[in-house]
Amino acid sequence: MAIPGKTEVPIAIIGGGAAGVWQAAALSMLGALDLTIVEPSEALGRGLAYSTSNPGHLLNVTADKLDAHPLEGFEPFIPWLERHGMMAGETYFPRKVYGDYMDAVVSAIRQRACLSHHVARARSLTPVPGGFRVMLDNGDELLAHQVVLALGNLKPRRLAPIEMPGLAEDPWNIPQAAMAGADEVVIAGTGLTAIDAVLSVANVSPNARFTLAANRPFMPPSDAKNVSWPGVADLTPDRPSRLWRSVIAGIRSNPEGDWITVVEALKTRTAEFWQNWSPGDRATFARHGLRHWLHHRHRTPPPSHKMIAQLIANRRLTLCRGRISSIRKAPSGLALRVGDREMTADLVINATGPSVDPRDEPLLSSALDDGLVTPDPLGLGLKVDLSGQSVTADGSPAKGLYILGAWTRGVFFEVVPIPMLRKHAMNIASEASRHASWRSG
Ligand SMILES: Cc1cc2nc3c(=O)[nH]c(=O)nc-3n(C[C@H](O)[C@H](O)[C@H](O)COP(=O)(O)OP(=O)(O)OC[C@H]3O[C@@H](n4cnc5c(N)ncnc54)[C@H](O)[C@@H]3O)c2cc1C
Fold first, then answer.
1. Residue pLDDT, tens place only, 147-158
2. Which of 36, 41, 42, 48 best tests ligand 1's pocket when mutated (most atoms within 8 Å of CB)?
């Protein structure tokens, strides 16, 4: 059905990070000839993870692990690396290299389809007869028959209600001047984002000292190479408690050694376990096991891990138990309270993890108001059906509205590694192509 309006498009992908671009690739593979991406950044395919130009920001897995679930007709990462004279092996490449590879993926899409890029942020999404109206912050308006939301993670919730010099609320965008002058740095959080922030500051301020604060400070372990735990193939844990018992038994019996090996092997099957559990069992795991799982599941690339270990050994990096409960301007820098301690810092970085409240993103907030999206009951993201289609407030699918990536964690569990993004993008493309008229060109 034709939609009266401004720019009418068969399918609009909102968000042009890695997920949005792999979505466009999957759609082009199934014959879509007219693709639209809305993305405020000029560069497509890089998003948060692959926009960095810091050579110390590495992929957290070896290159070979990024090629699972390939898309037919798109050159995988390893052959692309080899064609560009880079020996893949078991190297942890800078994330910028993956961003360069994504440029090649964008070019390959453009050879198959017309790809329009609206350099803007989508502000609202409302249903109209035959599709959706998407309002952009540059005043443009799209009328799309189908929409894929590939928005990635939101920024963390703010540490302080007002802006202050030396307070970086966005860990992905720390002002260069603030980093250059920083001797005492406090980072809220101890995960991979905190490690990225340490590496960014250490790059420009070689004498900086770091305090990483969290209620349960825990640095992600080094990535494990060539791990194996054959026991993982036989697991059929129908409840989280049985999984827990199997993991303990696995750690005790594993001849190669430790929990890192067991957790690494488990990663290949957790999505399947999660989807087979009842809502009650998922809730139990979310309450009691998820935090531990996320702590142990995320890995630091070994070269970054070594740098962090050196900073700790040289007493330039310490872990501190407690949350930042107040920040105020001090005569020089910032004064803050961390747990029951007072401290001062030149630079404070918020690496507390992304907000998962859809109300923090105007586009999602407008879609919530119209009942087009619904928070999942565990508060991990938004409800989708198994094809990736959004589930509305009344429990029915929002026909033609799909969600890809981080916001689908509550349903698919493993959602952000590149191979999983490609797999889910392919599912969405199959479903979208069943309802589309693009095959006629
Ligand atoms: C630091 C870091 C390192 C990682 N390393 C790896 C790795 O080594 N291997 C791996 O497999 N995975 C890794 N990941 C996982 C990563 O999440 C995925 O690989 C992938 O980058 C996620 O892409 P995305 O497009 O979903 O999200 P993002 O990269 O966040 O992109 C989302 C895009 O949506 C845009 N957007 C948001 N809201 C709007 C709006 N309203 N309108 C228009 N556009 C909007 C944003 O501008 C952004 O460009 C890493 C993640 C991070 C953060």
1. 999 999 999 999
2. 48
**Is there an atom of ligand 1 within 6 Å of 151 CB?**
yes
Q: What parts of the chain have a pLDDT lower than 50?
A: 1-5, 440-441
Question: Residue 257: what pLDDT?
Answer: 57
Q: Is the CB of 153 under 6 A from ligand 1?
A: yes
Q: What amino acid occupies position 213? A: A
Residue 60 Cβ inside 6 Å of ligand 1? The answer reads yes
Fold of 167-221+299-350: FAD/NAD(P)-binding domain (3.50.50)
CATH of 7-154+355-440, one of 3.50.50.60, 3.40.50.300, 1.20.120.520, 3.40.1570.10: 3.50.50.60
Residue range 179-207, pLDDT digits in tens? 998 999 999 999 999 999 999 999 999 99
Ligand 1 contact via 150 beta carbon (within 6 Å): yes
**Ligand 1 atom nearest residue 66's Cα:** 11
Half-sphere exposure of 156 (CA within 13 A, CB side): 21
Query: How many CB atoms lie under 10 A from the CB of residue 67?
Result: 16
d(CA 196, CA 193): 5
